Amino acid sequence: MLTLTDNARSAVEDLATQAGLPDTGGLRIAESTERAGSLELALVAAPTPGDDVVTAGRATVYVAPETTDALADQQLDAEGTDAGAGFRLAPQE
């Protein structure tokens, strides 16, 4: 299952707080509807039925069912950029 680094956990917590999301809110990862083979990240108020739920601290990440297998051995990381948080995936260590 997807895991989060401490940086990703902190970034997701900060983004959810800044967006005023409810306790059920978090970051959702799904296949892009516009670009095949790409992923979309979105802040959502609640999961979509069937989403896998990954929690770390107060951070919640929802993984769409069609991306679960592709992300099973991945780790979500984040780093600060001038535009905000930048996320990337890497194999789990």
Automatic annotation (TrEMBL):
Lineage top rank: taxon: Bacteria
Name of the featured protein: Fe-S cluster assembly iron-binding protein IscA
The organism's taxonomic lineage, starting at the top: Bacteria, Bacillati, Actinomycetota, Actinomycetes, Micrococcales
Organism of provenance: Cellulomonas cellasea DSM 20118
